[in-house]
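Let's practice the habit of predicting before peeking. Look at the sequence and jot down your guess about where helices and strands might fall. Then scroll down.
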Amino acid sequence: MRAAPRRGGRARPQSEGDSFGMPLADLLTTALGCMMLIFMVASMFMRDEIALQAQLSEQEATGRMSAEERARRLERARDQLTRDAERLAGQVSALTARLDEQGRALDSQRRAAEGERRDLGAQLETLARALAAAEERLNDQTTQVTDVIHQLNPATARPVDVMLLIDGTKSMQPSLDAARDNIKTAIRALRIVSPSARVGVTVFRDKNERPELRVEHKDLSDNEDALRAFLSGIKAMSTARDKDRPEWMCGGIEHTLKHTSWRKGSIRLIAIVSDAATQSPKAKRCVELAAGFRKEGGFVHISSTLPDGYGERREVTREYDEVVLKEHAAVAAAGGGRHIQKADEAALMEVVLRAAFEVRLDGLQELSDSLKGGAAPKGR
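Done guessing? Here is the structure:
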């Protein structure tokens, strides 16, 4: 039992022995008392024996006691001493048993205390690991907050590079006109997100067209007038070599990936507009290219405009609904981007602007998911 603290003062410090029930000092005192008792009784026994022997010898020498009387007294004295010794032995045995019992209790209490110490140590270790994990998570979230602030600040955000990939066949003239008319507005809007935003254009047609018509390319630029001039010089057309409705989208994507001067660390976007299938069975080649671009950090978005004759000609309507949309959706999904179905001519610029702003907000969404304990999004 712990000593109660004295009023107005500090409690007596508790020694290590006091924590196991019986104070260690009491145990040692009991053992020492037992040894002293044995020593005292033995000393008395020897002293009385010597004194008796001397007394008897003196009496016998003076003739006052017969030898028989002396023997009887000596025997009685020895019997008394024997009884005293036996009584003392019983007391010693009882003390020894008590010492053994208290020793066992002390050992049990020590073992229990050691177990409690081990449990406490394990709890402290678990707590330390939890605190380390919490600190690491806090550091990660602090880094995320810093990254988000940088990304939301146009002065420190990653630059944006956008390639417009436009189907240039005869039915796509409205989309080319919309791109030309809106290119300045789109670039200026992009500069709100990224002051150094650049835009490029790739126009693709049918694989069977002449090389100069298959793909026309204008690399990334921040010159609005040069881009508008390039688009003004593009005419939507198809020659007699183009005998089917699918167009060479995969070739346009491949040419764009090979001939575009993407900036290191930039947000890379490809925005495609077309009303036709891909000239690749189930768009397999286009999907491979889009997936590779996404793996490198880019995004591919598609606007599927309505072809001439949709809703009027059964074969055109069926092909668009059952082939074109499915292929375009597969390419956009592989590229981690958005797919707009039955889009109008201005949808391409809308996709570009929305994509640029959404990529900026991805860091904020990841931070929100991290704070909630959820998984970060993999991208659009």
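How did you do? The chain has two domains: 19-150, 157-372.
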